[in-house]
Amino acid sequence: MHPAPPSQPASAPRVLVVDDERPLAQMVSTYLARAGYAVSEAFTGPDAVATARELDPDVIVLDLGLPGLDGVEVCRQVRTFSDCYVLMLTARGDEVDRIIGLSVGADDYITKPFSARELVARVQAVLRRPRQRAGSAVAPRPGSEEPARLFGDLTIDPAGRKVSVDGRPVELTRTEFDILDVLSARPKYAFSRRQLIDEVWDIAWVGDEHIVDVHVGHIRRKLADDPAAPRYVETVRGVGYRMGRG
């Protein structure tokens, strides 16, 4: 573990950079620190989990190929105690690794090689996503609690950020919940991938828009929603997705 220079204010967002390629980790850390973030580094999987538990970062920039524990297992363990944003670093073309990473709770990924400025922009984009979606069109009005949304036996509680099917709690990642939140707030509206990205990630987000499909696939699996005949999240051919009736 290598803490960044203590030059940032205590209120600065905390970013943990995890990569066993130390020159790359330190370059990324330097750019993030210059952008105003409080940055720490870890170079092995076990150190990453321990540092995340100790520092409670807002974002983890996490390489998949790590000694001790790989990035997938690090993300899986971090998700047991933290809902921080996880941005995974993958080799170009490793689609399987990206899908596995997203399946254990990563919010986004960026492929190597990348520019440090691009990575800083991604971190800035995820941090613009409010943790409770405060101030968005689908957030509860100040001083009120939005009632639960019902779609057959699916219940979505936007205020408590809880989801259940037939009374059984369903554990979703923050990104998965946010997608379901957006869809269920306007159930008759068909959202394109780009519209969902603008709502859930940020209008400044750049990358492969099919990341939405991966997250929707995970949502369906967790809801036991048959993708061939979905009840909860419907595919609108040529457009994107909308909420089903359940």
Name the helicity range.
25-40%
Q: What is the fourth-level CATH superfamily of the largest domain?
A: Response regulator
User: If you consult CATH, what is the topology of the largest domain?
Assistant: Rossmann fold
H/E series, N to C? Answer: EEHEHEHEHEHEEEEHEHHEE
Choose one word for the global shape: elongated
CATH class of the largest domain: Alpha Beta
Domain count: 2
Named CATH architecture of the largest domain: 3-Layer(aba) Sandwich
Domain OmpR/PhoB-type: 146-245
Modified residues (4-aspartylphosphate): 63
Pfam families: Response_reg (PF00072), Trans_reg_C (PF00486)
Organism: Intrasporangium calvum
Explain how this protein is built.
There is one protein chain. The chain is of the alpha/beta class and 246 residues long. It has helices spanning 22-34, 45-55, 71-78, 95-103, 116-127, 174-185, 193-200, 211-223, and strands at residues 2-3, 14-18, 38-42, 59-63, 85-91, 108-112, 149-151, 154-157, 162-165, 168-169, 191-192, 233-236, 240-243. It has 8 helices and 13 strands. The strands form 3 sheets. It has a 6-stranded mixed sheet with strand order 1-3-2-4-5-6, with helices on both faces. Strands 7-8-9-10 form a 4-stranded antiparallel sheet, with helices on one face. It has a 3-stranded antiparallel sheet with strand order 11-13-12.
